[in-house]
Amino acid sequence: MRRLPRKLLLNGTGLLVFVIAVFPVFWMASTAFKPNTEIFSTTPKPLPSHPTLEHFDLVLNGGIAEVSFWEYFRNSAILALVTVLVSGLLSLMAAVAVARFRFRFRTTFLIMLLVVQMVPCEALVIPLFLDLKQLDLLNSLAGLVIVYIGFAVPFAIWMLRGFVAAVPRELEEAAAIDGAGPVRTFFRVMLPLVAPGLVATSIFSFITAWNEFIFAFTFLDDQTKYTLPIMLQFFFGRSGNAWGPIMAASTLLTIPVIAFFLIVQRRMVSGLTAGAVKG
Amino acid sequence: MLDTAPAVRKAPGRRTSGRARPRRRPRFGPYLLIAPTVAVIAVLMFWPMIQIGIMSFQKVGNRQLRGEPAESVGTENFEKIFNDPFFWQTLRHTVLFAVVAVSLTLVVGTLVGLLLNKLGKRMSSFVAGGVMVAWATPPVTAAIIFSWLFGTTGGLVNWCLDLLPDFLVGGGWNDYNWFATPLSTYTVLTVCVVWQACPFVAVSVLAGLKSVPGELYEAARVDGSGPWRTFWSLTYPMLKPIFLVLVVMSIIWDFKVFTQLFIMAGMANRDAFNLSLYGYSEAFGSLNPKLGMGSAIALVLTLILLVVTALYVRVMVRQGETR
């Protein structure tokens, strides 16, 4: 008899936590579908009683900025994809090195990775601004993506090395005995086995680049180069009370990332916690 | 999100003993593999850090941006900021915010982690999925959503507070402006940051709890230990390494929080600045950029964080993460 109320209490608390966690995002999406009269109503309602797509229409078909939403979307997507590809390649190489070989400076390298993950990008933005200016890479997606790669790689290596270390060496040795060269062994044995780790790492790099604000805000000057977060901030700053379109734009920026995150959630959590804290 | 590393702790099935395998010691292989990474980090992180050090002793403004050489001003930048009460105010904001936000994040995050561990399998993954939504939300969006929730016109929070009886919360909430004073701005910022940071703590704690053998809890229960006591004499010591890492990382994140405060307070609202916003605004906030001053402030921030980072590295080395 005592078990039932306890279980109810636990599940009730669980539901409450769920609601609190999801509510702000739900409120954003719900506002995006409300006509202005409901947005500024004196008695806010959880769901729009007359849902409308007018705010999305405004955001997607111009009217909020000089450049189309899709251009910003494209910029963000290009930056995120290039970051994922390049940082994935570099970090896989380095992860193999630290997980498979003992070499001098290996510990130094690992400590360096830890330290640079903690470096405040809020501080580095000043010198990087000057460096990019000198290289004529300011106000270009190319300049920005280089910086993103730099900030994505240390974490990606740290995350990947666990996956590489988890691949049994015996498999590689067996392939070698069967006469496969190192390259073939890598593509046939290592790559398929670390693929889940690569996926998890890529999601992280992708989201980091997709969400990034301060570098893009500082380095990009030209509206056609803006990324989605910059567009959003710009729009927010300019039209303080146009909450409908602001929420519609926020929804368009946020929902893909959340969907992406949730799809790979299980894989990611297992990646993050892979063997975490055993002893 | 970049700095989520330490949750990835020990590699699954990592070898415990390093049996010597001479065959696996090629001379240049590993160096070639890490070379690109080292180059990228040197160019994008170490060199800029050195530049901050140099520039903080220089005057770098519009003329230097046009290409003229920077002139050295000695310790002038530092004298200026250390003698300016405004600097100390931003430092106070930074530290107080970090103390409050870190404590709240850890307490709430741990409680959620404990709850996730207690829930049934399906309920647990359902709640975890919801919590992940907060984690995945871009900081810019989060800041904008919370500005809207706490807004003056049509804001949900003010509406709710106004509904509550006056003797509880006082009256006149309907047009209360949360972004008028630093204290209320930081209140909203804290809610926003804690909401986003808790999931990571919760998931890490959950992972840790899963690795604690169930028999220990069984034994504690048999001995008649209550939940409070069980937490402090069993769970906490077992999870201490994770907590250490989580504390250090939270301190670092909250010390340098920028995007959310930038969106909520903006560069015009100087009263609410923290260190990173102050440094940024000196460097880029006006038509008269003072990159030297900005660097000096950034250097102070970096040095503070380096101390915390040193602690972090020590913890990680002790736990054998760099072996």
TrEMBL record, chain A:
Gene3D superfamilies xref list: MetI-like
A Gene Ontology BP annotation from the UniProt entry: transmembrane transport
Transmembrane segments: 9-29, 77-97, 109-129, 141-160, 193-220, 240-264
Membrane topology: Multi-pass membrane protein
Keywords: Cell membrane, Membrane, Transmembrane, Transmembrane helix, Transport
Pfam families according to UniProt: BPD_transp_1 (PF00528)
Compartment(s) where it occurs, according to its Swiss-Prot or TrEMBL record: Cell membrane
PROSITE patterns per record: ABC_TM1
Boundaries of every ABC transmembrane type-1 domain copy: 73-264
One GO CC annotation: plasma membrane
Similarity remark: Belongs to the binding-protein-dependent transport system permease family.
Protein name as it appears in the record: N,N'-diacetylchitobiose transport system permease protein
From TrEMBL, chain B:
GO biological process: transmembrane transport
Domain ABC transmembrane type-1 span(s) in chain numbering: 91-312
Homology family: Belongs to the binding-protein-dependent transport system permease family.
CDD domains documented for this protein: TM_PBP2
Biased composition annotated in UniProt, kind: Basic residues: 11-23
Spans through the membrane: 28-50, 95-116, 128-150, 186-209, 230-253, 291-313
GO CC annotation terms, alphabetical: plasma membrane
Protein's recorded name: N,N'-diacetylchitobiose transport system permease protein
Topological type in the membrane: Multi-pass membrane protein
UniProt-listed PANTHER family: BLL4140 PROTEIN, DIACETYLCHITOBIOSE UPTAKE SYSTEM PERMEASE PROTEIN DASB
InterPro entries noted in UniProt: MetI-like (IPR000515), MetI-like_sf (IPR035906), UgpAE/MalFG_permease (IPR050809)
Coiled coil: none
Residues covered by region (Disordered): 1-23
Keywords from the UniProt entry: Cell membrane, Membrane, Transmembrane, Transmembrane helix, Transport
Subcellular localization, as worded in the UniProt entry: Cell membrane
